[in-house]
Amino acid sequence: MSVIIALFNQSGGVGKTTLTQNLGYHLAVRQHKVLLVDMDSQASLTTFMGLDPNQLEKTVYHAVVGEKPLPIHDDIYHMALVPSNVDLSAAEMELVSVLMRELRLKNVIEPLLPKYDFILIDCPPSLGILSILGLVAATHVLVPVQCQFKSFQGTDLLLRTLTKIKKAANPHLILGGFVPMMYDIRNNQDGQIYRAMQQQLSPVGTVFNPVPNATAFANASLQRQPLAVYAPTHRAVIPLEQIVDNLEKLGA
């Protein structure tokens, strides 16, 4: 059975897109068939994967609004990608009066389930309809949380949102865990926040080992590469591999 993971946090700048790309890559090199879906109109994932959003004729917008098949770009670092661009920003308004709009992404993903082991959905940093589409389509949700007080504090709202989604639209949605992002071991506040995550969030879901704050992620993105391609021995590769160890168990 395909594992569909929505990477979601209503806050921006927490490393969600970076995590999506890199986890997808590590799953792919372990011989899993991986599809990434860019549900953010900023199209950062599309750009990180080497496509120019402005040059695309078909994107996820045409699938969720026009009910067309998902446009898939194959074999990008062993992964497939459904791209996005600014057109997706109009989807929220266009879907306002659509019946059963929450199922639009789920419906176009379902025909692809036999083809992929893992489908990773990069949700936008908001609580709007595009994030809801991703969460309704998903079997699991993975939450990146920046090791900063404001980001950590926002997990209360996020968990309430997930509870509402489970109650109203996707009762089978499973919380896959929390990924502490941009962790600086030299910063006392980061350490305090990480320990608070472990204490307060562990009863709700797995708190993974933190992904370090590293300029190599930005440099890899500029080169349109996953970190393990750009810098295979970088220390941040280890926690990414550890997360993937757990993700593989979801599909067992």
TrEMBL record:
A Pfam family that the UniProt record links to this protein: AAA_31
Alphabetic keyword roster: Plasmid
InterPro entries: AAA_dom, DNA_Partitioning_ATPase, P-loop_NTPase
Highest rank taxon of the organism: Bacteria
Signal peptide: none
AAA domain span: 4-173
The family this protein is said to belong to: Belongs to the ParA family.
PANTHER family linked to this entry: COBYRINIC ACID AC-DIAMIDE SYNTHASE, P-LOOP CONTAINING NUCLEOSIDE TRIPHOSPHATE HYDROLASE
Protein's UniProt name: Cobyrinic acid ac-diamide synthase
